[in-house]
Write a structure and sequence with these properties.
Helix content is 28%, strand content 10%. It is an alpha+beta fold and 285 residues long. Among the domains are: 18-92, no CATH class; 135-177, no CATH class.
């Protein structure tokens, strides 16, 4: 008997071949995986293609950015599944199926030198709340790194009135002391992102004015490593861009964005050799 998904022979007492059974059986949401695999199957090559990019999915290397995974078409648990590569599953984050391609189109347009249209993507499904919040310091407690004997002065980052005995204003100190790591890279990143004429911080990747008050906003201030793991390359980015960039360096990110934009315009399939994915690592090492 032929496999219920592909052209291979099913194993005894199963409707699937060994390959498809491994992908479907005894897994969470297995009932949704079968139609996803049927839609992704390319009989001409006896293999599966990514829903988002048409690349041939890798089945035997979990550390590959093109390893097969299953993505919710709409960012909610009740949504149908599609077969995707890990790279685009992670880049999609909480974007809807109509929003995901638009993000690449507008990013590519901006990378060519045009202003990014903040209203182009509606972020209907946005729900990225993992570690993106930057809570205020409890009780207004000062840290020794910010203490000053000056009773009143201007913030060293934005020039607004400083918090009492601090070299930063209440807004900036929330982001400076985001976590327990060295705060100086965040100070440098915030200074580079500050635009006095806008009275706001801007995103490094889009040039768009960022939200500094609503952690649930896709445009909320976040910090991104332009080179993954290198604190000296910290920059300020919108939460949604930081989530979309995942484990790519800045150069790799733009290479993927521009290639995907080409794929959307010209068709074919995404070129997996567009970059080396040097920092991609799912092995736990």
């Amino acid at each position: 008997m032929k496999c219920a998904i592909c052209i291979r022979k099913a194993i005894p007492r199963s409707i699937y071949c060994p390959r498809c059974r491994e992908l479907v059986a005894k897994k969470a949401e297995s009932a949704k995986r079968r139609p996803a695999l049927i839609a992704a199957y390319d009989e001409a090559i006896d293999d599966f293609r990514c829903h988002w990019s048409r690349v041939i999915l890798v089945l035997d290397d979990p550390n590959s950015p093109f390893h097969i995974c299953f993505d919710h078409l709409f960012p909610r648990k009740s949504s149908e599944l599609v077969a995707s590569c890990e790279l685009f599953n992670e880049m999609k984050s909480d974007l809807g199926p109509e929003e995901f391609p638009l993000a690449f189109v507008e990013l590519a347009r901006h990378h060519r030198g045009l202003p990014f249209n903040r209203d182009f993507i509606k972020f209907i499904y946005w729900n990225e709340r993992k570690l993106l919040l930057a809570p205020p310091l409890p009780g207004g407690r000062l840290r020794h790194e910010e203490w000053t004997s000056r009773v009143s002065s201007d913030c060293d980052i934005c020039g607004h009135p400083s918090y009492k005995h601090s070299i930063y204003c209440q807004r900036c100190r929330r982001f400076v002391f985001w976590g327990g790591h060295d705060h100086l890279p965040r100070v440098k990143a915030l200074k580079e992102a500050w635009r006095p004429e806008l009275d706001a911080f801007i995103c490094h990747y889009t040039g768009v004015k960022l939200d500094d008050s609503d952690p649930k906003s896709p445009w909320y201030i976040n910090f991104d490593h332009r080179i993954p793991g290198d604190e000296n390359t910290l920059t300020v980015a919108a939460s949604w861009v930081n989530a979309m960039k995942t484990d790519l360096s800045e150069d790799e990110f733009w290479a993927v964005v521009m290639e995907y934009d080409r794929y959307l315009r010209e068709g074919g399939e995404f070129n997996t050799k567009v970059t080396t994915f040097k920092y991609w690592n799912r092995s736990g090492a």
